[in-house]
Design goal:
alpha+beta; 3 helices; Pnp Oxidase, Chain A; Split_barrel_FMN-bd; about 45% strand; six-stranded antiparallel beta barrel; about 160 residues
Length: about 160
């Protein structure tokens, strides 16, 4: 099956904060780093994206934003933890969003950067209670993602 390119894919990227039409009487606004991180801090969960055996993998996790880092809790026996702990500062992506399909509005933020386990016992004790869910068990690992690349969009009435 051949997919025709979307004509809007060839338009130049707008300056941060500038809106562009979506073709559905709405607009897409590129977010600056500060606004993207502010929105990310409001969300409770997102998806960590990493490579496993040279293939992309995605896992949903809870997160918090502290000291300009995304902090997540992953299972010690999970594939995510295997990847993060196997190499020093492996690069991952993290995505979170808040999209309203009925109002056709919302936002999405993607952060890319190195991830590493947090080893400071005081930080672990501070972060773990904020990240716990009903599925968590002993042996979870608190991981920090450094936001090297931050991008985001706000959708206004028409995606």
């Amino acid at each position: 099956m051949w997919i025709e390119p979307n004509p809007t894919d060839t338009e130049p990227e707008p300056v941060s904060g500038e809106s562009r039409p979506t073709g559905h009487r709405g607009s897409v606004v590129d977010l600056d780093r500060a606004e993207a991180m502010r929105l990310l801090a409001q969300a409770a969960c997102g998806r960590v994206v990493f490579t496993r055996d040279a293939l992309p993998a995605i896992r949903p996790v809870r997160h918090i934003v502290r000291d300009d880092r995304i902090i997540v809790l992953v299972r010690l026996i999970s594939r995510t933890t295997d990847v993060v702990c196997a190499r020093d500062r492996v690069v991952v992506a993290y995505e979170a969003d808040d999209l309203d399909p009925h109002g056709r509005s919302g936002w999405a933020v993607v952060v890319t950067g190195p991830a590493h386990p947090i080893t400071d016992p005081d930080l672990i004790a501070r972060y773990e209670p904020m990240l716990r869910s009903g599925l968590d068990r002993a042996g979870d690992v608190v991981v920090a993602i450094e936001p090297t690349i931050v991008s985001g969009i706000a959708l206004r009435g028409g995606y």
